[in-house]
Amino acid sequence: MKTGRLLASFCATVGLLAATGAQAQETYTLRFNHVLGPSEPFHEGFLAWAEAVNERTNGGLTIEVFHSAQLGVEEDIIEQIRQGANIGQNTDAARLGNYVPGIAVINGPYFVASKEEAFALTDLPVVEQWQQELADEHGLKVVCFDWVQGFRHFFTNKPIRTPEDLAGQRIRTPPAPIWQESIRALGAEPVAMAFGDVYPGLQQQAIDGAELVYPNITAGNLHEVLDYANETAHILLVNFQVVSSQWFNGLPEDYQTALVEECRAAGQETSQVIAEATEEAKQAVIEAGMEVVTDVDMEAFRQAGNAAYEALGLAEAVEEVRAQMGTN
């Protein structure tokens, strides 16, 4: 009888300890924000990333994805991230260049020619150095940047074939210096404006056009207020997924690894989906009545784009990356 009571007491104690251990297992949540609509491939890619991380960590790390800037505008979110908030943001090297100037070249004019070249940037010593500086000095941990959104073109209400054709055109672009100087170097007047304001901005003639990727046009119904897709391919848009370095460093090591590795896998898969979706979006805007201008003087645009790097003092950074890539 006594033995039975002791056994029961022992089992109860073991059960209590197991329950206490389960309660002590800490879980983590990342609230991930992006400005794109729910119909865009990137949103599906972020959901796939979230699912993969959740499965790999057995529910220990959850990513909640918010589309259409539901958590706020990009620049404000980045500042919250720097303060240690458990928030992530899809952003670009142009905006990160506000903190570490050199990294902005990744979103500069005619910098890389393919998504494969963009993927290869990750392991370059100079790029690793920029990422470390972002994390250590500015609180921004780059999880990965294998999310290539395609080539940006000028979308306007007049045909554009040379940089001179952009003279006097007010073109919407994000507010970061590399974007502003790139558009200025290519011949237009840059206008900083949130993506969500582009459609009314065109309606109200606050801007004359925008430089975007094809899927942005269909997602935002911008073909309703724009006539020409001018294939300048002036920037290959490489997206960065950033979180707070303070928050990231507080994760268990295996969670950190899962977050990074699944980010890269989902990004590269989504980049391929984007490449296919770009062709579909291009056909959609043609069917909607937009005219595609392909006889663009690409050499003239490439030469013009170099002025952006010179203006921002980034010419040396461009040469350093290209030397390490072997694309000089």
TrEMBL record:
The record's Pfam families line, in alphabetical order, gives: DctP
Q: Residues of the signal sequence? A: 1-24
Q: Which domain of life is it from?
A: Bacteria
Q: What is this protein called?
A: ABC transporter substrate-binding protein
Q: Does the keyword Signal apply?
A: yes
Source organism (scientific name): Devosia nitrariae
Q: Coiled coil where?
A: none
Its keywords, alphabetically, are: Signal
User: NCBIfam families annotated for this entry?
Assistant: TRAP_S1
